[in-house]
Amino acid sequence: MAGIRNGRPYRRLVAAQKALGLPCWLCGHEIPTGVDGRRHPLAFTLDHLVPLSLGGDLLEPTNARSAHRRCNSSRGNRPAVKWAPRTSQRW
Q1: To bridge 77 with a disulfide, which of 47, 51, 85, 88 should be the other Cys (CB 3.0-4.6 Å)?
Q2: Residue pair 61/8 in contact by the 8 Å Cβ criterion
Q3: Where do the structural domains in the chain lie, given as residue ranges?
Q4: CB of 26 within 8 A of CB of 49?
């Protein structure tokens, strides 16, 4: 079933995006490797340029972006043009 976040196509997309080693597209800081991906706020997550709730495609590579868990969560489903990271975040 296409479009499921734990399906093979989605896992492949996540792995391909993570392998690029890009910084967080939201804050610009590097995404550390070796942190707990399920819990650490600076861990890698796959974000979507166009949020899924606003019609973005889950499996479209051009909609995929690398992000920190914290940045992705704080953005929520707001369009990228309406989201700006807090400048007081400490790394």
Answers
A1: 51
A2: no
A3: 8-82
A4: no
How many other CB atoms are found less than 10 A from the CB of residue 66? 21
CA dihedral 87, 63, 15, 78 (to 10 degrees): 40
Q: Residue 41 contacts by C-beta under 8 Å, 6 or more apart in sequence? A: 68, 69, 70
What is the greatest pairwise CA distance in the chain? Answer: 42
Partnered with residue 44 across adjacent β-strands are: 68
Digit-coded pLDDT (tens) for 39-85? 899 999 999 999 999 999 999 999 999 999 999 999 989 887 665 56
**SS3 assignment for 14-62:** HHHHHHCCCCCCCCCCCCCCCCCCCCCCCCEEEEECCCHHHCCCCCCHH
